[in-house]
Amino acid sequence: MAHIGDTLLRSVGAFIVMMIITRILGKSTISRMTYHDFVATITLGAMTANLSINTSMNVWQVLIAIVTFSGIAYLLMALALKSRAIRKWVSGQPTVIMEDGKILESNMRKLKMTMDTLNQELREKNIFNIEEVQYAVLELNGKITVLRKPEYLPVTRKDMNLQMNKQSFPVELIMDGQILSDNLHQNNISEVWLVSQAKSRGLAIRDICYAVKSTNGQLYFDRYDDRIHQPVDKE
């Protein structure tokens, strides 16, 4: 039982330590996963696993190792912000794999990328015909960004000289049946107004699962009772 209790305490401690380190390193480390981020994530994960289950290792020694490595990762990240040379070494740089509609085979070979992978990435961007592509770039996070040829670009409202209404960021008003008071306050929306809007739709706040003010100012309410007698898919 003592070993079980020790493992539980170490696991909780390891989780808390990793949460703190992740908050310090920031969201970009999670989303980008550059060379530096990949090495940091793998190493810190291994260290945390040892802290959690390797009871033969001293807790403080492992913690010191984790903190030291996290400090190095943070320092490199700070230096990368100030120096482009260090940033290129730590994170790498984007690589062009298609230019003027032509595939750069030499760059693809260096990247160990196959045509199957390129085609898959293009399909994920709803591009099924490779002749639509003007430029394709492999970004630092491993994703491919694409610029289509002019004739394949979608027509915008600006191209058609259509009037464009001002848009704003969507504001969540109710979630899980609870009014999000902070969101109301930050956007100068009164709770009385929200209740009246729900009432005009025959709804009470307790009936609403989710409500949001969309980018065009329209209100969307989703009630708990969907009133769908035969749903297409039900778990």
Précis, in short:
With 235 residues, the chain is α+β, with helices and mostly antiparallel strands.
How is this structure best described in words?
This protein has 235 residues and is of the alpha+beta class. Helices cover 48% and strands 15% of the residues. The protein has nine helices and eight strands. Helix 3 runs antiparallel to helix 4 and helix 4 packs across helix 5. The longest helix has 24 residues. The model has no long low-confidence stretch (mean pLDDT 81).
Sum up the structure in keywords.
235 residues; four-stranded antiparallel sheet; 8 strands; 15% strand
The spatial strand order of the largest sheet comes to: 2-1-3-4
Order of helices and strands: HHHHHEEHHEEEEHHEE
Note the overall shape.
Answer: flat
Beta-strand residue fraction: 15-25%
Could you give a short account of the major beta sheet? Answer: 4 strands, antiparallel
Which runs of at least 5 residues are low in confidence (pLDDT < 50)? none
N→C terminal distance? 39 Å
State the share of residues found in helices, binned by percent: 40-55%
Mean pLDDT: 81
Instruction: Enumerate how many helices there are, as a single number.
Output: 9
Class from secondary-structure proportions: alpha+beta
Counting DSSP E segments of at least 2 residues, the number of strands comes to 8
Radius of gyration: 26 Å
